[in-house]
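Saturday, quiet lab. Running sequence design on the structure tokens for the scaffold JK sent over.
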């Protein structure tokens, strides 16, 4: 089996810097999207919640309407029974039968009174729920409109950047394969720990890019020699000389333009 070709430190540094430029470009694309995907997701959840709430209230109202119909039917049945009992009272043979029919009539009258009270309560509940539905529906319409705008904005950004991001992710994976595992672990750890995601930076005016701490001349000479991987003692970032950085930026910008 052929032994994997050992690449020089300079080649490792160039591959690392290329990877950094690609990953930074991916970061830029994702920053353009910003919080839009999360905003869309939150709005979708809110719209779904409001829709469910409106549906539940409408179901409650239908159930209350059915209850009102049942009570109205009960009232009609009680009226029929009252009419029946009143007629029977005209033909009773004794006070006991009359009193019994009177109690039945009174019971049905109480049933009618209770049913009418229930109907009044049900109607009040329907009115309240209808008012809540109206407000929820108004809010739902606003949220749906907002969601549509956010989705349109997100889709527009995705249409512009999705293809480029996919191509960049492929390039990133390609360069990662060229870099030994130890360096990749360090690179990913540094990227995770810094806000701007820059794990490898060039020397600018005697200091690491984005830093105010001057790098000793002897260390700068070692960095320019590209004989070993050197990190900034203050930020932990991997350092490259300005010339190498400029060369790789020019090369990668040409590549980005073709994506």
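Result came back. Writing it out in full:
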């Amino acid at each position: 089996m052929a032994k994997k070709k050992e690449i020089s430190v300079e080649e490792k540094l160039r591959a690392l810097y290329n990877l950094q430029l690609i990953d930074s470009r991916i970061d830029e694309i994702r920053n353009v999207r910003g919080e839009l995907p999360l905003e869309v997701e939150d709005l979708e959840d809110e719209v779904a919640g409001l829709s469910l709430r409106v549906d539940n209230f409408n179901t409650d109202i239908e159930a209350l309407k059915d209850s009102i119909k049942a009570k109205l039917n009960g009232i009609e049945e009680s009226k029929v029974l009252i009419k029946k009992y009143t007629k029977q009272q005209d033909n009773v043979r004794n006070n006991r039968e009359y009193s019994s029919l009177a109690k039945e009539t009174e019971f049905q009258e109480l049933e009618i009174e209770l049913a009418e009270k229930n109907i009044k309560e049900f109607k009040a509940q329907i009115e309240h729920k209808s008012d809540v539905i109206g407000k929820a529906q108004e809010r739902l319409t606003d949220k749906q409109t907002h969601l549509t705008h956010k989705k349109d904005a997100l889709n527009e950004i995705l249409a512009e950047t999705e293809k480029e991001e996919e191509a960049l992710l492929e390039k990133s994976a390609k360069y990662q394969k060229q870099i030994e595992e130890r360096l990749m672990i360090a690179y990913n750890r540094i990227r995770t720990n810094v806000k701007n995601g820059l794990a490898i930076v060039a020397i600018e005016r005697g200091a690491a890019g984005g830093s105010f701490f001057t790098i000793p001349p002897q260390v700068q000479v070692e960095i320019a020699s590209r004989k070993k991987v050197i990190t900034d003692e203050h930020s932990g970032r991997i350092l490259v000389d300005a010339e190498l950085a400029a060369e790789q930026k020019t090369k990668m910008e040409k590549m980005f333009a073709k994506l």
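Notes for JK: The radius of gyration is 39 Å. The chain has two domains: 9-32+180-258, 36-174. Ask whether to fix the surface positions before the next round.
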